Amino acid sequence: xxxxxxxxxxxxxxxxxxxxxxxxxxxxxxxxxxxxxxxxxxxxxxxxxxxxxxxxxxxxxxxxxxxxxxxxxxxxxxxxxxxxxxxxxxxxxxxxxxxxxxxxxxxxxxxxxxxxxxxxxxxxxxxxxxxxxxxxxxxxxxxxxxxxxxxxxxxxxxxxxxxxxxxxxxxxxxxxxxxxxxxxxxxxxxxxxxxxxxxxxxxxxxxxxxxxxxxxxxxxxxxxxxxxxxxxxxxxxxxxxxxxxxxxxxxxxxxxxxxxxxxxxxxxxxxxxxxxxxxxxxxxxxxxxxxxxxxxxxxxxxxxxxxxxxxxxxxxxxxxxxxxxxxxxxxxxxxxxxxxxxxxxxxxxxxxxxxxxxxxxxxxxxxxxxxxxxxxxxxxxxxxxxxxxxxxxxxxxxxxxxxxxxxxxxxxxxxxxxxxxxxxxxxxxxxxxxxxxxxxxxxxxxxxxxxxxxxxxxxxxxxxxxxxxxxxxxxxxxxxxxxxxxxxxxxxxxxxxxxxxxxxxxxxxxxxxxxxxxxxxxxxxxxxxxxxxxxxxxxxxxxxxxxxxxxxxxxxxxxxxxxxxxxxxxxxxxxxxxxxxxxxxxxxxxxxxxxxxxxxxxxxxxxxxxxxxxxxxxxxxxxxxxxxxxxxxxxxxxxxxxxxxxxxxxxxxxxxxxxxxxxxxxxxxxxxxxxxxxxxxxxxxxxxxxxxxxxxxxxxxxxxxxxxxxxxxxxxxxxxxxxxxxxxxxxxxxxxxxxxxxxxxxxxxxxx
Length: 752
Ligand SMILES: [Zn+2]
Description:
By secondary structure, this protein is of the alpha+beta class.
């Protein structure tokens, strides 16, 4: 379409042309299917946005569809906010939160009179609360002092809050094209969309729908993605619950319903800024089209329009990453809330269901020797299943004996093909193997003669036992394999413990020492002999994988359990469903080696989370500084848990300082202490002066602990429960309804 390009006769009627071009809608933005969401991208603190579309980008007046400058922009195109004042951060004291606007206004007026400080009432539409804030201070320390004064006056919840101010409303928009040609606009609101098919790119991420760019009432540059609700959810679900990590359709469906309900319920939350909800964890994470994944797309489509309601209204579908085995009543985390469906529930299968979750495997019980050396055990077991080392050899008697030359040569012969090397010609030798000989054979096997010549210097000979620094290398040592030994020791193939200490130059190598070296060599240079699969069930000598394979178990199976410090050999291994394991199959296709890759934590549905349980320590000094950011109560002396909720979460805590005591409640405790959750215990180390030196917090869970437990939902889906059962479990007594059947739930809120 050509618009406003003057041809000969049109130029003659210039006035007419102008009139026509203004009334013509040049490039009306494509319609976004209802229900549409307006998603605020970014924090609103940037003054620049970079836009691009593969087939060219349109930037038009939102009201008329007219292009204020060029019809089409190719390549990266910038929209810049000009003017609009100096932006800065100020600190204020939040005195309290109230559900009644009248109570909040009355308090604000009284504090304004008493303190001679600026006071304001903020409406938090997400939480449906009124927050009273006092003071406008440049320094956090000054704000903390004011907060302490308010605590002393009886406002126990006073705390320092941060605000950004300084925007003015005289800002203007400027477009800068890919050649850095620019045009400053009279317009304050633009719409961006691709000229052709495809998606628009905003600051390196692609989005469906259209993009609005405007200066909001606070003078900030706002970038808003206007997108259909279901398309929006496709960019939310995978960022909230990664399908790669949590590949259970029913769990993703439950997440989709919770996210949809959240989105519709919170439409208009940021109406003052011209959008519905934000794209960050403050609302729910939205990554646009680049985040989409086929599994989460299916979860959105499979629950299309489904939302959670309670008594005919959209429910407050809070969700938390990991609840640590039990969720919490909402009022113990967010004291102003009291939704009856946000009740703490267990996140664990019932007793007889637990039997279905766990199964046991039995393997070799003659692993006493390997148990003594867990850091070698895995490598040695792998040499056995690969046919390098005789299975019967892994006993205390076998391992501790001197390594004979015959056996040494057998092992090297059998290892060579795994290393992709030619076997060494056998030599007719008798007797034992000394350290130098072992090193020479390994250098020969690996073909490292050149490495030795070029990379070994006399100065490196320091690791040859018995040789003083600066000594020349005696002929006997050189020919006996000294340089080879030095090289391999330096490169960590031969352990230092084998060449220092009680081991002397002439000692014969023991079998376990040789196996240690070969295991290290194999770990570094042999392709992983194992494959990864996830366990569905085990029974009757068989293992069914989630990938759909049915594998028989060999009788003399090596089993390794996972610990925080690495794998350890075990005779019996407990496995839960969906456990990722590494297996080796013997020539008959049976599993003869199985290694768990994740420590066995629990049978709880949220056991898959790395944050299922945790521990963290912080010195009293550091914690004092951290807490001092919110309140000046002097030197931190101690903490006291006053009250716990149904899950054990700390609902109320006293902070005792040299200048006074403060009380923290619910989620504020987590924020103030910087912990992962409020489900924790505190213990203390005391210093010689009798004061607390260090606090140790041991805890479970990650998040706020209220509503749907995301990892728990995954665990429930692994147990075969569907998305309806999952939602009804975490949201007590709610209804699941379709928006198409309840259009009243969609009453539009945010206006452009
Ligand atoms: Zn849970």
